[in-house]
Amino acid sequence: MVGAAYLSPDAFDTIYLPATPEDKVTQTWTLSEAGSSIDGIKNLLVNKNHLGNGIATLTNPPANLTSGPGLQYLATAVQAYLALYGGVSLVVPGIFYFWPSNTNSFYHGATTYVPGGAVDFNGGAVYSKAFTTLKYGPLLLTTPPFEYDNIWTINFYDVYGQVYHTVGKQHGSNGGAKVYIVPPGWEGELPNEEFELVRSPTIEGILLGRTLVGGNNSAVRPFDLAWTLEVYDNPDAESLPEAIRFAYPEASISAGDWQTPQDPLSFWKLVGEVYRRNGAWHIQDPLKRLLPTLGLWEEYGFVQASVSPLALDALKIAPYYANRILTAKWINLGPKERGYWQNPWNLGSYGVDYVNLAAQQKFWNIPNKQVDAVYYWGFVDSDAVPYTGANGTEYDIEFPFAPPVNNYSFWSIVANRHPNVLLGAPPPPGSPPGQAAWSSIYKDAYSNNGTWRFRLSATPPPANSTAASRGWNWVSTPPDTFYLTLRLYSPGAAPLADTYIPPPVVRVKRGGASPTPTPTPTPTPAPSPSGTSPAPAPGPSPTVRRLRQR
């Protein structure tokens, strides 16, 4: 199964194996920060056994990659994977394929427009997306004037998932936007002084819009459907692509897995083509200078014939180490005094932070700028124990006051937005976006004199009860491992200043013994072309035995 290889069995060892909460925080941070430089990765590979038991489970590299040129190739390949992963995350099939309707190159969905004009907001927002290519020349995005109080944004993402521009209510666009998007290196003249010039860092990309509930909701449908995106003044241009694959015939949904035994070079072949078409503006020296040693050429893509046998061995095993590092970045725990919640301050604006870019594109590849939305992630409860909904386990969280958001906005809590992501399985193509979210705009939302109390459980409350009669709001959790996302759309000043701290999540009930898990088979790596067999893939660790409980 594809999902079985999405993450390695030991991916979450740094939050399961350490004995103390402090060690969990330290080891997860240490592993995540190791990817910040090639030398840091080399140090990790050489000294992993001295950095804590959650890091020591890293598989030993093959002998020919443990020192000298081999170690240099491996560390370079790991960082190249992190830096380029965003391209693969957006071009594989199955990403953003659940939008049901399209008009003017935009697909409007993750919600359904109901005949008659009503809108079913998915947790509080209508999503719209358009895939972009500038190979035929500049694009013109237009949005009509909007006089109502609904908050809306359109984020402009390059092919690696980095936000390079935003329009919307909070960005002064309610009077109508006319955005002239030009490719890298464009030196023409703006055809109309009313156009806003925006330079895309890459040829390909995606536009993603969000229109929030609040204000005049009946006006949302005609407003969103009036957005237009077209190649400007080029009658010979083909229509914009319906999917971000952009005719990538080699794209495979497994290309971003930690291991691809059917073709150990599938990631590099695909990302090489992304690199050839788009360049990689965010990659700097020394990595940029070293990419050709891995067979990655900006003019040609991935050229296997130009790679030495030693470097080829490194390319085949690098995805495993890169995925351990980027997973650690994703599950980085906040400090105890913050209830272990984390708030990645640079979400959506990465620059050369390769590890953060890779982590967000693996697990959350539609980030916002913080002025539009702040996300808090929680992977462990107040005792630093990872969340689970198994065996009747329940949690409480009590907000003494609502998280600060602006007028005409909302906040929400969701457990495990993408099903089974902690089990190492992405949602299948066409699946719903994930576990149902609780939102502050729900009719059943309950607050007692400004205090908001929640029960997190896989077991629904009695059908004849209400949040008010129970005294708490219910957040649905999966029956197995999960993480929490607290979303604040159009956040207030405290979240933007990173001074707001969500309350701790307290485990209040645990059921009986956990069921015996079914071991997950581990794929066998392909033989090394240099004649040296790569290290065996890591077998199921104590982590996977816990993570895969059902």
From TrEMBL:
It comes from the Eukaryota. Residues 373-492 form the DUF1214 domain. Pfam families: DUF1214, DUF1254. InterPro entries: DUF1214, DUF1214_C_sf, DUF1254, DUF1254_sf. Residues 507-550 are annotated as: Disordered. Residues 104-217 form the DUF1254 domain. Residues 516-528 have a biased composition (Pro residues). This is Uncharacterized protein. It comes from Chlamydomonas incerta. The lineage of its organism: Eukaryota, Viridiplantae, Chlorophyta, core chlorophytes, Chlorophyceae.
